[in-house]
Amino acid sequence: MLPGAAAPGSLPFAHDGFDSARGPCTFAALRTLLHDDLRGVDASTRVAIAMQNGADLALSLLRVAHWAVAVPLDPNAAVVELRVALAGCAGCVVDAAAGPAASAAAAVGTAVVVAVPKAGEAGATFHLPGPDAVVADPAANRPCLLLRTSGTTGRPKIVAKTRQQLVAGGEAIARSLALRPSDCCLNFMPLHHIGGIVSNIYSPLVSGSAAVYVKTFSPTDVLNLDNLSPRVTWIYCVPSHLQAILAARTPGATPPRAVRLYRSGAAALPAAVAEELRAWSGAVVLPTYSMTECMPIASPRGSYELDRAGSVGPAIGPELAISERGEVLIRGPLVSHDAKEWFATGDLGRIDPDGWLTLTGRAK
Questions:
Q1: Which residues are CB-neighbours of 98 under 8 A, at least 6 positions away?
Q2: Crossing angle for the helix pair 27-35 and 55-67, nearest 10 degrees?
Q3: What backbone phi and psi angles, to 5 degrees, belong to 319?
Q4: How far lies 89's CA from each of 73, 92, 137, in Å?
Q5: φ and ψ at 207, to 5 degrees?
Q6: Which GO terms describe its biological process (predicted)?
Q7: Same topology for domains 26-160 and 217-362, yes or no?
Q8: The pLDDT of residue 57
Q9: Burial of 266 (C-beta count, 10 Å sphere; 0-12/13-18/19+)
């Protein structure tokens, strides 16, 4: 079954920004998009995606990851970095024929594929050069996403994710937040990192809820959410975004009332920032823990009241343990590692008797 298969087809899934002239991609349109096989590829074909943030990027990533192996890249990276990342890719999907990614692809002989926005609704069309042979619907347990990461040692490496892992990660987050079809998240996170992909694409997808994808982060827009459409109910971002939102307030500014939850990740959330945001907004504020190799790892539930200072909550995906030297270990199907073996995260921490994890430093 495809993610989101149980969602009514008329429900919106992906909005292309606020108050857009283009309608949202509905769940029915998404199913059509995913069933429209990507010609010229098979389940092992690597296809880079170097598009600017937005609904077209999110939907293109879903389509490529369903049929082939998606390699999302920063479209604004230096050409020399993109050339290295494009090695072994059969094509590079871009949203403009000119730019660093197109130049890098041409330099290494990778086909440049321009995604054309669909008229009237979110989504883009593109076809890769190659034979038109129809391939079987690829298995969910094969690698479908490759992400570049510095790793726990600081040395760059590639992490492979399967569709099963992406869907399971989205389900874990959706359960922890109690997402409903009436919910809508706001994404300004880069979609070439695991956090934005799992939290802001797959968790709405599996819960039958929606997301609005904007090109850039604007604290002013966040403060003005009550006057924008669609209605945003939760936000996943990094602590610096939350600090910027608080700093952008004018005297007497009121919080966006529809936002019930702020989910923070990718870095430690300062307690003072969490407490100030909670006191001002009245919304739930969640510090969380994850890494490219496993998204998510730990998070409090959506009713958390910041009453466990320094904790990132209980495990919501993998098993957790602490090694003899105090390093956090994770294990299970969500981990991009042997599911039966413990994976050392490189972080130090402790687990309270009730299972809540507190991070205390780095092991290396």
A1: none
A2: 40
A3: -75, 150
A4: 12, 7, 20
A5: -100, 0
A6: fatty acid metabolic process
A7: yes
A8: 97
A9: buried
Question: Which of 20, 82, 3 lies closest to 55, judged by CA?
Answer: 20
The domain defined by 217-362 folds into: Rossmann fold (3.40.50)
CA distances from 43 to 57, 82, 324 (A): 20, 23, 41
CA 331 to chain centre: 21
CA 290 to chain centre: 12
Q: Which token pair is 245?
A: 């939102």
Assigned architecture for domain 26-160: 3-Layer(aba) Sandwich (3.40)
Q: Whole-angstrom Cα distance, residue 160 to residue 165?
A: 10
The alpha-helical segments, DSSP class H, found in the chain are 27-35, 55-67, 79-85, 100-108, 163-177, 194-197, 203-207, 219-223, 239-247, 271-281
Please state, in angstroms and rounded to a whole number, the distance separating the CA atoms of residues 48 and 56. 14
The partner residues of 234 in beta bridges, in order of sequence, read 185, 261
Calpha distance 278→259 (Å, rounded): 12
Average pLDDT over residues 135-142: 74
Contact present, 174 and 148 (Cβ < 8 Å): no
What are the structural domain ranges in the chain?
A: 26-160, 217-362
Task: Please name the residues in contact with 206: beta carbons below 8 A apart, sequence gap of 6 or more.
Answer: 3, 4, 167, 170, 171, 174
User: What amino acid is encoded at 14 in this protein?
Assistant: A
Per-residue model confidence (pLDDT) at position 1: 40
Longest alpha-carbon distance in the chain: 62
Long-range contacts of 282-285 (CB under 8 A, 24+ apart): 282/255, 283/255, 283/259, 284/260, 285/242, 285/261
pLDDT digits (tens, 9 = 90+) for 293-339: 999 999 998 888 888 888 999 999 999 999 999 999 999 999 998 77
Q: Which of 82, 90, 87 is nearest to 38 (CA)?
A: 90
